[in-house]
TrEMBL record, chain A:
It comes from Ornithinimicrobium pratense. One of its GO terms (molecular function) is helicase activity. This is DNA helicase. The keyword Nucleotide-binding applies. It comes from the Bacteria. It holds the Pfam family DUF7990. InterPro entries: CC_star_Cory, DUF7990. NCBIfam families: CC_star_Cory (NF041419). Keywords: ATP-binding, Helicase, Hydrolase, Nucleotide-binding.
From TrEMBL, chain B:
The keyword Transmembrane applies. This is Carbon starvation protein A. Its main location: membrane. PANTHER family: INNER MEMBRANE PEPTIDE TRANSPORTER (PTHR30252), PEPTIDE TRANSPORTER CSTA (PTHR30252:SF0). Keywords: Cell membrane, Membrane, Transmembrane, Transmembrane helix. The lineage of its organism: Bacteria, Bacillati, Actinomycetota, Actinomycetes, Micrococcales. Belongs to the peptide transporter carbon starvation (CstA) (TC 2.A.114) family. GO terms for biological process: cellular response to starvation. InterPro entries: CstA, CstA_N. Residues 566-591 are annotated as: Disordered. The chain crosses the membrane at residues 85-109, 130-155, 161-179, 186-203, 223-244, 251-269, 289-309, 329-354, 389-410, 431-449, 461-482, 489-507, 519-541.
């Protein structure tokens, strides 16, 4: 026989339900906004690789490994099956 | 007839519909099967496709479909007497709306969560899809124009609602900041938001605000309409977290509270229905009951818009197929109860028959103002609130629904205009597209005169367009049933009835517009009429071929799903933002 839910859990469930009711309809809109921000960040990090002089490249070069996976997602999303950068071949 | 009896009979009918007819539909017609994975489970990407608790999903679905339309439609239609409106709302909810909304959900979950637009391309052909685009653009245009007039009439008729209406914007802005910047917990924010909203209602009740009768040569109604369009334009350009999201949330909570207040008051006060069951003393110029009743009450009986919400967003969040019965059918039941509340408010909320007839002096005279007056009196009698406070609560509720629909409508119209621009090779920026969206809406509203009457005169056209959308959805569901060799009667009979009434209404209106020399509405009517005939011909051809060559859609889907499972579709964690799913778009508005 299953245990009846504890009051604390029930309260947590209500709060989770309320949060879902608040955020649910706009999940996609926020995801898209987040993606736009991520893409901008990616472009800044890859500025040097794209041939755009970047005064902050001393700092951003460290972030290249971090954006590696994102870059692969990005070029696939943009309709390029292979990496467009010769020296940045993720696949 | 006592209003409590009416409420109980109505509620019993729609609830019996849920208990019995939806069970029959779920088991025998749509054959919902919990062991079959839903698109939300198969394509879970954490963005669009998210398995969601059925009660939360019902809340989303219900608040998305419930807007001003289930209030306005019945409030206008009781001019023929309470009985025709009551019968159409209850029978319509059970056999039309519930079946239609559940059917749209079922059609979508059996097609990877695709929307009705995409499905019309698949089942009726490319022309069906083009037709869908035409119809949806017209619906958005009409919703904005009509709702701006509804709200401006309410603001003029109930000056005590001015402060809460515009103050609700400040509450929503504050809530957005409290959640995202100050990181308050959501339950706290919800309580503070609702208390602040009702505080504003109390304030507004003591401080009524009204514009001068004319401002710069324009009547006050027109000034409100222009201000509303300006607001909708600005709101649609702000980031969603700032205004739209907290506003929709507070409106959702307010919807449940207001429904509770209205039905609670009916339970306590039990006012008598003063309006006649069947009105034989119709004001001059009132159109015939058949067919106008069936297009005047759209949401609350059957509405094509529900199919868009069902297939656009709800279908991508169903955790189990069986949940479709609760979310789809019970969502329609909720909407039916809202429409029933509107009928009771506009027929039992008056002291005498003479007073009721005084309000309903002409077709479209009653409408939402009658709902506010009548509903206010019932709440006054039930909860003992002062009459003006009760009316302010009801008016604010109605305005908030209509305003939410307006700003989302402008936002969606902007997307459509930008897409059309892209097809035409013109890159329209956000600002320009919004200006066009607002401009077209204003042009339609003021097309018939400086008083903005064009917005309300197109209301019956909104009904026919919306019913056309429902007919499109029903024909897709019918074709799917035929392809599975199941009985199409539960969808085919309503489809034939709806199609006949819509075309009949369009022809009646065509004559009226011709007599009035109203060229704009005449052209719109002809466009809708051609679209309606087009739907019938295309659907008939598709049904004939589906009947001649039944194929099992589910097998096709199983193959597609296998391909998805093999790795060609986005999964949670695979892509940071889950791109690549077939359906994109912002949640649709709620008429």
């Amino acid at each position: 026989m299953s245990q009846p839910p504890q009051p604390r859990n029930r309260l947590a469930e209500v709060v989770a339900g309320l949060r879902e009711f608040y955020a649910g309809p706009y999940r996609q809109t926020f995801a898209r906004a987040q993606q736009d921000e991520d893409d901008l960040f990616l472009v800044i990090v890859l500025a040097e690789a794209l041939g755009v002089p970047n005064p902050a490249s001393y700092y951003t070069v460290e972030l290249l490994p971090v954006v590696y996976d994102q870059f692969h997602d990005w070029h696939r999303r943009m309709g390029m099956d292979r990496s467009p950068l010769d020296h940045f071949s993720c696949c | 007839m006592n209003s409590l009896t009416l409420a109980l009979i109505g509620a019993a009918m729609v609830l019996a519909g849920y208990a019995l007819y939806s069970k029959f539909l779920a088991e025998k017609i749509y054959a919902l099967d919990d062991s079959r994975p839903t698109p939300a489970v198969m394509l879970d990407d954490g963005v669009d496709y998210v398995p969601t608790n059925k009660y939360v999903l019902w809340g989303h679905h219900f608040t998305s479909v419930a807007g001003a339309a289930p209030i306005v439609g019945p409030a206008v239609a009781v001019i023929w007497g309470w009985l025709p409106a009551f019968l159409w709302v209850t029978i319509g909810t059970v056999f039309f709306a519930g079946m239609h909304d559940l059917g749209a959900l079922w059609a979508s979950i059996r097609n990877r969560g695709q929307s009705i637009g995409a499905l019309s391309g698949r089942y009726i052909g490319a022309r069906g899809r083009n037709l869908f685009l035409v119809v949806i653009f017209l619906v958005l245009l009409m919703v904005n124009a009509a709702f701006s007039v509804v709200i401006s009439n309410l603001l003029v008729g109930t000056p005590t609602a001015v402060i809460p209406t515009w103050g609700a914007l400040l509450v929503a802005l504050a809530i957005g900041q409290a959640i995202y910047r100050l990181k308050w917990s959501l339950p706290l924010v919800s309580v503070v938001g609702v208390v602040a909203l009702y505080g504003l209602i109390l304030l507004g009740d003591n401080v009524p605000l009204a514009l001068p009768e004319t401002v710069l040569g324009l009547p006050d109604r027109s000034v409100w309409i222009i201000l509303l369009f300006l607001y909708a334009g600005v709101a649609s350009m702000l980031p969603v977290w700032m205004l739209l999201q907290p506003r929709d949330y507070i409106n959702g909570l307010q919807l449940f509270i207001a429904l509770g207040i209205l039905y609670g008051s009916v339970l306590i006060a039990r006012p008598e229905v003063v309006a006649p069951a069947y009105n034989t003393n119709l004001p001059e110029g009132t159109p015939s009951l058949v067919p106008l009743l069936f297009v005047t009450i759209a949401c609350g009986a059957i509405s094509g818009f529900h199919g868009m919400v069902s297939s656009g967003t709800s279908s991508k969040q169903l955790a189990k197929e069986g949940d479709a019965r609760f979310v789809g059918y019970f969502g329609a039941v909720g909407e039916g109860l809202l429409a029933l509340g509107s009928i009771i408010a506009t027929t039992a909320g008056f002291a005498t028959l003479a007073q009721w007839e005084d309000t309903y002096q002409a077709f479209n005279d009653g409408g939402v103002n009658a709902f506010v007056q009548g509903g206010g009196r019932i709440v006054e009698a039930g909860l003992g609130l002062p009459q003006s406070l009760a009316a302010t609560i009801i008016a604010t509720t109605a305005i908030l629904f209509a305003a939410t629909t307006m700003d989302t409508g402008v936002r969606l119209k902007r997307f459509v205009i930008q897409e059309i621009g892209q097809i035409a090779g013109v890159n329209l920026n956000r600002m320009l597209a919004t200006v066009i969206a607002v401009g077209v809406g204003l042009a339609l509203t003021f097309g018939a005169g400086a008083d903005g009457s064009g917005g309300m005169r197109i209301w019956p056209l909104f009904g026919t367009t919306n019913q056309l959308l429902a007919a499109l959805t029903l024909s897709i569901v019918t074709i799917m049933l035929l392809r599975r060799g199941r009985s199409p009667l539960p969808t085919l009979i309503p489809l034939v009835f709806l199609g006949a009434m819509t075309i009949y209404a369009l022809l009646v209106q065509l004559g009226t517009f011709w007599e009035q020399r109203d060229w704009l509405l005449l052209v719109l009517d002809i466009v809708i009429l051609i679209s309606a005939l087009w739907v019938i011909v295309e659907a008939f051809i598709a049904m004939k071929s589906a009947r001649a060559y039944p194929g099992d859609d589910d097998q096709e889907l199983a193959l597609e799903m296998e391909a998805v499972a093999a790795g060609s579709a986005p999964r949670r964690g695979g892509s940071s933002t889950g791109q690549g799913h077939p359906q994109e778009g912002t949640p649709p508005p709620a008429p």
